Every structure is written in structure tokens, then in C-alpha cells.
TrEMBL record:
Domain CcmH/CycL/Ccl2/NrfF N-terminal as annotated: residue spans: 11-152
Record field: transmembrane: 105-126
Stated name of the protein: Cytochrome c-type biogenesis protein
Pfam families recorded: CcmH
Organism: Cognatishimia activa
Length: 154
């Protein structure tokens, strides 16, 4: 029974693990260069598939980006230079993990800042509301009381 459970676990791990979309014709001859290309590819976003890396995507542009990464590596660029080249060409959106500096710092801080502002405004509103005097309600006149009694009879 244990063997069957172990085999099922291993098979499910193999079946449900992400599969790289790299085609055999794209693989570089040098294993070290291929490893570098895979590392870079796993950190670049497919522009069609959104939250999928170019290493996992089967889209045409993902294949073009994988080939571009390999061409830049063969040209002698470092990993950082390859990523910088792709970002210059396609914009920072191509990074799966955007940078946290520069103008992106505004985007990273906007969510927590808005939460703090919302909590402050709601606290101010609730404090003002609890301190407010209740509205004065006038008593019913004799005509209103008679009309109400008539309505309630029906």
C-alpha cells in the first residue's frame, strides 16, 4: 500500500509540475549557457500569457523572446545585460518581479497608503458620529395621534 501511495505521489508530481515550453531546437549546446538562459527565461513574463514566464509559454512571442535571450548570451552578454536589453526593448512589464525603485516605488506604496488613509477617514467619521447629538424629535400633535390611531385600526 505504501509503494502504491509513493508511486501515485511521484506520478502526480510529474504530471502536475510546470512544463517548460522550450523546444529541442532552441536548446543551446553548452549546458552552462542553457542553464543561464533558463534562469533568465523564468524571470521574464510572456507578453501574451500575462502571468506565465517565457520558459513555460507556448506563445509565438515567448519563443521569440527565448531565442533573443539565447542570441544575447551567445553574443557574450551577462545575465543582467540580457535582462536590461529585453526591458529596454519591451518595457518593464516584461519582468515577472518588477523593480521596487524609482517610479515603481509610488505603485508599491500606493496600496498601503490608501489603506492607512481609509482607516483614518473611517475612524474620524465614526468618532464624529458617536459624539454627535441625537436629532431632536418633536412629539406628535393631537391631530397626528388621532390619524395614527385611525390608520392602526385598519
Amino acid at each position: 500500500m505504501k509503494r502504491l501511495l509513493i508511486i501515485a505521489t511521484v506520478l502526480s508530481g510529474l504530471l502536475f509540475s510546470p512544463v517548460a515550453a522550450v523546444e529541442p531546437s532552441e536548446i543551446m549546446d553548452d549546458p552552462a549557457m542553457e542553464t543561464r538562459a533558463r534562469i533568465i527565461s523564468k524571470n521574464l513574463r510572456c507578453l501574451v500569457c500575462r502571468n506565465e514566464s517565457i520558459d513555460e509559454s507556448n506563445a509565438g512571442i515567448a519563443k521569440d523572446l527565448r531565442l533573443l535571450v539565447r542570441e544575447r548570451l551567445e553574443a557574450g552578454d551577462s545575465n543582467a545585460e540580457v535582462v536590461a536589453f529585453v526591458v529596454d526593448r519591451y518595457g518593464e512589464y516584461v519582468l515577472l518581479r518588477p523593480q521596487t525603485g524609482g517610479s515603481n516605488l509610488l505603485l508599491w506604496g500606493a496600496g498601503p497608503a490608501m489603506l492607512i488613509v481609509a482607516l483614518g477617514l473611517s475612524g474620524y467619521y465614526l468618532r464624529r458620529r458617536s459624539r454627535a447629538k441625537p436629532a431632536k424629535v418633536d412629539a406628535l400633535s393631537e391631530d397626528e395621534k388621532a390619524r395614527l390611531a385611525e390608520i392602526l385600526k385598519d
